[in-house]
Amino acid sequence: MTELEKTIMNIIIYAGDCKNHAYMALGLVNEGDYAGADQELEKSNDALEIAHNDQTSLLHKEAKGEKIDTTLLFIHAQDHLMTAITERNLIEQIIELRKVVNTLINK
């Protein structure tokens, strides 16, 4: 496996971890476990940071003139990362709404 392929696979793996932890956080907040949800969101953000840093390293290489092959796997990684960012952002908003709903239900 080339260094480029390893970087691409890392983007896919960590973007997946980002989404997984975000959905776990949503499940926990639905159960009223806010501390657990916050921990999962932190893990989601950590995974996203790694994936984003790998993507940024490829962008820097290309900006410096290094040719980056645009393979189907690379496109998949970019798509996976973009989806992870979008889903995580939406889940964070849903979690905030769920906290409000939980407070209203428990009154």
From TrEMBL:
The keyword Nuclease does not apply. Its EC number is 2.7.1.-. The keyword Transport applies. Signal peptide: none annotated. InterPro entries: PTS_IIA_lac/cel, PTS_IIA_lac/cel_sf. Binds 1 Mg(2+) ion per trimer. One of its GO terms (molecular function) is metal ion binding. SUPFAM superfamilies: Enzyme IIa from lactose specific PTS, IIa-lac (SSF46973). Mg(2+) binds at D79. GO terms for biological process: phosphoenolpyruvate-dependent sugar phosphotransferase system. Its cofactor is Mg(2+). The modification Phosphohistidine is found at H76. PANTHER family: PTS SYSTEM N,N'-DIACETYLCHITOBIOSE-SPECIFIC EIIA COMPONENT. This is N,N'-diacetylchitobiose-specific phosphotransferase enzyme IIA component. The lineage of its organism: Bacteria, Bacillati, Bacillota, Clostridia, Eubacteriales.
